[in-house]
Automatic annotation (TrEMBL):
It holds the Pfam family GATase_6. Mg(2+) binds at S306, D368, D369. This is Amidophosphoribosyltransferase. Its EC number is 2.4.2.14. The active site is at C2 (nucleophile). Its cofactor is Mg(2+). The gene is purF. Catalyzes the formation of phosphoribosylamine from phosphoribosylpyrophosphate (PRPP) and glutamine. The keyword Transferase applies. GO terms for molecular function: amidophosphoribosyltransferase activity; magnesium ion binding. GO terms for biological process: 'de novo' IMP biosynthetic process; purine nucleobase biosynthetic process. Binds 1 Mg(2+) ion per subunit. InterPro entries: GATase_2_dom, Ntn_hydrolases_N, PRTase-like, PRTase_dom, PurF, PurF_N.
Amino acid sequence: MCGIVGLVSSGPVNQQVYDALALLQHRGQDSTGIATAEGRVLHMTKAKGQVREAYRTRDMRSLLGTMGLGHVRYATRGTASSEEEAQPFYVNAPYGIILVHNGNLTNTRELTRELNDVDRRHLNTNSDTELLVNVLAHELQQQVLGNELFPEQVFAAISRVHERVEGSYAAIALIAGQGLLAFRDPFGIRPLVLGRRTSGLAGDEWVVASESLVLEAGDYEVVRDLAPGEAVFITPDGQMESRQCAANPRLIPCSFEYVYLARPDSVMNGISVYEARLRLGDRLANTIAQYAPTGNIDVVMPIPDSSRPAAMQVAQKLGIEYREGFYKNRYVGRTFIMPGQAERKRSVKQKLNAMSSEFRGKNILIVDDSIVRGTTSQEIVEMARAAGANEVTFTSAAPPVRYPHVYGINMPTSRELVAHGRKIPDIARELGADHLIYQEVADMQAAIVEGTDITELEMSCFTGDYVTGTVSPEYLEWVEANQNS
Ligand SMILES: O=P(O)(O)OC[C@H]1O[C@H](OP(=O)(O)OP(=O)(O)O)[C@H](O)[C@@H]1O
Ligand SMILES: NC(=O)CC[C@H](N)C(=O)O
Ligand SMILES: [Mg+2]
């Protein structure tokens, strides 16, 4: 999963893009990039690592202009360590386009063939984002008649992009001298929200971002989430036009955003992430009460950070004391989105430590938001026991992750998932827990969508049902065979 932001402003945008990326850091830690447009001139800088270390003062000074975009990457395709695959991606025709993308394309083999053999475009990396920007450039080229680009031409090109590209994509592009374009795939799998601020411009100042917290921090008013399939085009002087460009748009947002990825203070598709996590806790508490004797449990404990809201609700609903027994080192990033299992495993120990006074002789009920590879949970159970815990009941606010996620979360192969092909008691043994309780799929769905008119969620990693056509068993085998990290 990645974080993206785009801005059309009345003044310099470089610092605003930087600040937004720092707020989106939890969505990707592999690499980052910023691009700006100063009239027809594009500026770009990208680097490996996190936002705070990646940019030097001289980089920031060179990012001139009043339109800009930025990216924090959590690689799902290609390699996390590759600087060539860091985003944004640039193509020089038509006009000069720079694009950032959150998501993962699933028909990459077909697109690579078409772009090479039919469109005759050069591809230099294994990144699916490079495919996306080239499809967009090719389709825009088909529309272009003169020096000026009209919104109708942009929207016609995006309709073609929707026809050709499969998978998930929330994307933002700068088109040199013309404007800023943002679009969301026809299922709205990945998030994208639009905000506005009044200014001295003929039009308003605009922002598009993965999460609403960026809008709040910059004092932007939330206009709305982009609709699935919709494209928005904003000129440098702040005139905005939008159009539905997909033939059959259907909102099916990713459930994992609410479970783990997004920051709790964001609102996505009208759903507060924090409140969704509280409701996940409520429902998990009901399941725990149904399946496990809770009479002998002394304390409920979260695994910081993401499971705190759910754990608070579990404790409250079950009437058991809530205690924080794990101290988290705030200088270590999120472990799940790190590339490579060895680094993830080392980081859990670097990140969490158990305080023995909270564990000695007690029966502990641990709540995590999800169990994916089991890296965190195994270490946690070991730490709890080493700290003197008596019985350890492990619970997950999400159902078992049994299938690969191919829409922008890096869990592409089933063999690395601890729940794949295992029954619950076997998983419990694998994790070393005395009891293991997961959320039910129907409860997760109900908890997330409660109070909205959203009827479908992208839940393939829990159910094995993929919403886009190309995801066949053969495709999953191919992904597995070509996995890089
Ligand atoms: O089963 P696993 O493969 O270990 O993955 C699941 C864990 O990874 C995440 O934590 P992370 O440390 O990334 O971030 P957090 O601080 O937001 O909880 C998530 O919250 C789980 O704790
Ligand atoms: N997590 C993402 O959104 C990744 C975007 C893109 N697929 C990449 O690997 O760079
Ligand atoms: Mg965690």
